[in-house]
């Protein structure tokens, strides 16, 4: 048997894919290397390239291997009997699957794919919807029995899943919660879901320290002129948003503004220093966009306007790119990712509290504000879906989210 024949054996391919899946999902595309895969598979790089001609091809094959082998349906034996108990069981299953290293890694891979591998991104997005579709099919039985009132069980399943995992929170620097805390979050999500997303607000809204403008590092002697600095930051922002931190190329950044690497390092100290400044500036710019909803005739009109504004901002190209970057690099900058998310929830919470106060409704607490954000933005859906909603669809989704949210608040 020739060396080429040995490489083409099914067990050789399986060993490579097993090793590649572990490394890509654990380390991410930018950090993972073919050398590391070869070492883990105990094969040479040449052997790997016999089957997969590039790192890109190996990544795509490894990701497809992961979601092809790793899908498990929700526990269908829990779908009968009491609706509340069944939903809590499903919610806990969903949360545990969500934080499973393979699934967590697959979502981060989806972020990379959304920027660089559009066909793979579409497959990953559909894979993530499979569990929701299975749950939606089972919810139909409760709808038929009159225990659940919704005209679209698929949308209901997506919203339930988003509430259970609190949207993008755990991808943006917050550590996944313990089993006891997960159960409490799911129990609350189930109550919100069944009672129109209602839960007793405490009125104890926790303020978050405002996002401060970043301080330009370096000494006065090292600082660039304002115009040149602005051009450099614009080029750096584009490079980081397009390629992530690890794959970003300093030479491309300085080449765009005819500067030198030495100039950048004198000003920012390192590539990471430049990256942190760019992210801090982007977070600061986003924090200046407050939500100001004009008083209306009723809380539903005002809350729908807030939900639409939240969704409109969420679906902008700049926001999608920034959130993908923060998720992709959350292990490098967990403090910035976490503060970005918390500050956004605080801004939404203040706007929501102003509406509720005008109409004498219970003031929202942070958990309620996170739930509103997850509903208004459809949780993680549009961070990976290539097809963003048009204006008419956003208005419908904002109205639907508002109706369910306020129905629960009034019914508590």
Automatic annotation (TrEMBL):
Q: Does the keyword Disulfide bond apply?
A: no
Which UniProt keywords are present, listed alphabetically?
DNA-binding, Transcription, Transcription regulation
Q: Which GO MF terms does the UniProt record name?
A: DNA-binding transcription factor activity; transcription cis-regulatory region binding
Q: Where is the HTH tetR-type domain?
A: 10-70, 226-286
Q: Which domain of life is it from?
A: Bacteria
Question: Would I find Transcription regulation among this entry's keywords?
Answer: yes
InterPro entries, per this entry? Homeodomain-like_sf (IPR009057), HTH-type_TetR-like_transc_reg (IPR050109), HTH_TetR (IPR001647), Tet_transcr_reg_TetR-rel_C_sf (IPR036271), TetR_C_Proteobacteria (IPR039536)
In which residue ranges does the UniProt entry place its DNA-binding region annotation? 33-52, 249-268
Which PROSITE patterns does the UniProt record give?
A: HTH_TETR_2 (PS50977)
Question: Which protein are we looking at?
Answer: TetR/AcrR family transcriptional regulator C-terminal domain-containing protein
- Which organism is the protein's source? Sphingomonas lycopersici
Identify the taxonomic lineage of the organism of origin. Bacteria, Pseudomonadati, Pseudomonadota, Alphaproteobacteria, Sphingomonadales
């Amino acid at each position: 048997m020739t060396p080429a024949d040995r490489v083409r054996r099914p067990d050789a391919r399986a060993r490579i894919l097993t090793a590649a899946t572990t490394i890509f999902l654990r380390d991410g595309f930018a950090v993972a290397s073919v050398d590391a895969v070869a070492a883990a598979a105990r094969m040479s790089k040449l052997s790997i390239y016999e089957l997969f001609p590039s790192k890109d091809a190996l990544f795509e094959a490894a990701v497809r291997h992961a979601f092809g082998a790793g899908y498990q349906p929700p526990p269908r034996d829990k779908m009968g009997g009491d609706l509340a108990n069944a939903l809590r069981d499903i919610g806990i299953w969903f949360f545990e699957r969500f934080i499973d290293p393979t699934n967590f890694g697959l979502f981060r891979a989806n972020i990379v794919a959304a920027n660089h591998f559009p066909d793979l991104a579409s497959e990953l997005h559909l894979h993530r919807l499979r569990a929701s579709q299975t749950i939606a099919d089972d919810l139909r039985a409760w709808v038929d029995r009159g225990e659940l009132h919704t005209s679209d069980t698929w949308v209901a399943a997506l919203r339930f899943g988003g509430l259970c995992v609190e949207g993008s929170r755990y991808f943006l620097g917050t550590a996944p919660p313990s089993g006891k805390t997960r159960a409490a979050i799911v129990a609350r999500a189930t109550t919100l879901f069944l009672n129109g997303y209602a839960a007793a607000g405490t009125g104890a809204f926790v303020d978050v320290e405002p996002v401060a403008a970043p301080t330009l590092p370096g000494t006065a002697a090292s600082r660039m002129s304002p115009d040149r600095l602005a051009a450099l930051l614009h080029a750096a922002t584009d490079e980081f948003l397009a390629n992530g931190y690890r794959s970003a190329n300093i030479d491309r950044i300085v080449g765009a503004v005819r500067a030198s690497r030495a100039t950048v390092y004198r000003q920012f100290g390192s590539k990471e220093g430049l990256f942190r400044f760019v992210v801090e500036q982007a977070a600061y710019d986003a924090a200046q966009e407050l939500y100001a909803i004009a008083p209306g005739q009723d809380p539903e009109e005002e809350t729908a306007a807030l939900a639409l504004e939240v969704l409109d901002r969420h679906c902008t190209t700049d926001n999608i790119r920034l959130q993908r970057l923060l998720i992709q690099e959350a292990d490098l900058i967990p403090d910035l990712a976490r503060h970005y998310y918390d500050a956004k929830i605080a801004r939404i919470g203040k706007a929501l509290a102003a509406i509720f106060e005008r109409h004498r409704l219970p003031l929202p607490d942070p958990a309620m504000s996170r739930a509103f954000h997850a509903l208004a933005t459809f949780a993680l859906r549009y961070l990976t879906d290539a097809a963003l909603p048009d204006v008419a669809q956003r208005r419908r989704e904002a109205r639907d989210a508002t109706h369910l949210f306020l129905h629960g608040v009034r019914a508590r």
